[in-house]
Amino acid sequence: MNTTLEQAKSNIISKGFLDVETPKEMDYVKEIEKLKKEKNAVILAHYYQEDAIQDIADFVGDSLALAIEAAKTDADIIVFAGVHFMAETAKILNPKKKVLLPDLKAGCSLSDSCPPADFKAFTDAHPDHKVVTYINCSAEIKTLSDVVCTSSNAVRIIESFPKDQKIIFAPDKNLGDYLNKQTGRDMLLWDGACMVHEAFSIEKLLDLHLDHPDAEIIAHPESPSHILKTAAYIGSTAGLLKYAKESKKEKFIVATEAGILHEMIKQVPDKILIPAPTGENNSCACSECAYMKLNTMKKLYTCMKHELPAVDVEPEMARKALLPIERMLELS
Ligand code: 13P
Ligand code: SF4
Fold first, then answer.
1. Domains of the chain (ranges plus CATH)?
2. What is the rounded average pLDDT for all residues in the chain?
3. pTM, rounded to two decimals
4. Is the CB of 237 under 6 A from ligand 1?
5. What does residue 163 show for φ and ψ, rounded to 5 degrees?
6. For 1-12, what is the mean pLDDT?
7. Is residue 3 pLDDT above 90, yes or no?
């Protein structure tokens, strides 16, 4: 039995997306392009989105670039092809605009690893500490923060505090540990992590490197320290792309979510790119974010067509969460 639009709308909360039938032969690329123009909508996509979504997006970037783009867009509708905390950040920056997320269940294990009540108790127990949070956290966690950062600007944000300032860093312990080493600080770290970057296998990575001794390992700082120790370069998704382009090396083992390879292949078509291996024997032997991959072209089309699901942030929470995001943008 076909689901009616009304039934689909009432199921959004349980399903996460608007589950309506579309014609079998629908050309999503053509229809999405049409909707973009009709509705003055902009599609912002993260590098971890599936290839077709990256290709149809108006802007593809890392978390920082996407936040900057969201802050300056003059589109009426922002369609966020990424995960919930990213769309939420765009909504906080644009409270009057409609912000759509193709699948509301596109969450983030790292954000989930920092429950607000527990984090509030932690910050309350350390009142002399400033609170720096990685953008991969909920709006409620952002309200408890002095400043937000991304992997692109984290060193600069931390160094904006006096050397003797005590700092709590949350939620990513791996990024926090890396930043402590980079800045010579001793920040108190929240015990959170990204399951995608934690999934890399050091044994398989070292074996792969033995098979390709001419390759350089490049890694995202959400990876654990044993992976980062092997890396010739550590950086955000945008940083990894820049490095692959500028380096004289011809071969890279890339330790981050495999979606990055789509843009990397475009930017360095003549170089050899090998995804870093995970411990699991999954379909691509690489690390994929199941949350990011919840968004599909069909869900992108239906969310633009019916302008659902939209991401909303309660106004008082949005007002408080905006301050640390604005501080980050000023410092970036
Ligand atoms: P960046 O986009 O800052 O590199 O972060 C990667 C990530 O895990 C986003 O969820
Ligand atoms: Fe969250 Fe990790 Fe997925 Fe990024 S890759 S959205 S940090 S779970």
1. 19-107+292-306 (3.40.50.10800), 110-194+315-331 (3.40.50.10800), 196-275 (3.40.50.10800)
2. 96
3. 0.95
4. yes
5. -55, -35
6. 87
7. no
